[in-house]
Amino acid sequence: MALFLATHINKLDKKGRISIPSSFRTVLTLGESQQFVAFRSYKYQAIECCTLARMQQLSEGVDQLDIFSEAQDDFTAAIFADAQQISIDGDGRAVLPQILIEYARLGESAAFVGRGATFQIWKPELFDSHQASARMRIKEHQASLKLVKEEHEKR
């Protein structure tokens, strides 16, 4: 599986057009799609972005919740009702909807932040602050990760 990696700062024009980082376009086109899904983050003042396949996985996760439960209603309202499919043109640009631009407080530039299977779009200064806080929390809690063993290593 290809991953969205690194942070890229790109210019945003007055019409909401922005170049998608080439490494991100490569990941998006692996599924032969010239588009991605974007919605307002319910956790940060940023735009959450993913492939259509990832959105399908989110849908399947929500379907595991009790039907008509408050949790299911909340997730569908916060994610699916807000999600928009964004097309990428032949020049590698996309037009971000104004509602998303305003929510993330984007100005003349935006930070594309790789998050592995997904990516986010942030106002660069807000992401710098968030990243510094995240690094501090990891250091304070001495957090660590466990690597998931590949299938052939488990045998």
Question: How is this structure best summarized?
Answer:
39% of the residues lie in helices and 23% in strands.
Mean pLDDT: 94
Strands in their spatial order, largest beta sheet: 1-7-8-4-3-5
If helices are DSSP runs of H or I spanning 4 or more residues, what is the number of helices? 6
Compute the gyration radius: what is it? 17 Å
Q: Which oligomerization state do the chains in this entry correspond to?
A: single chain
The major beta sheet can be summarized as: 6 strands, antiparallel
Q: Which segments are poorly predicted (pLDDT under 50) over 5 or more consecutive residues? A: none
User: Could you say how many structural domains there are in total?
Assistant: 1
Under the CATH scheme, which class?
Alpha Beta
CATH topology: Chemotaxis protein chec
Gap between N and C termini: 22 Å
Secondary-structure element series: EEHEEHHEEHEEHH
Shape: globular
Class by SSE composition: alpha+beta
Query: CATH H level: which superfamily?
Result: Transcriptional regulator MraZ domain
Share in helix: 25-40%
Task: Estimate the strand proportion.
Answer: 15-25%
What's the total count of β strands? 8
- Second-tier CATH architecture: 3-Layer(aba) Sandwich
Keywords: Cell cycle, Cell division, Cytoplasm, DNA-binding, Repeat, Transcription, Transcription regulation
Subunit structure: Forms oligomers.
Organism: Caedimonas varicaedens
Family: Belongs to the MraZ family.
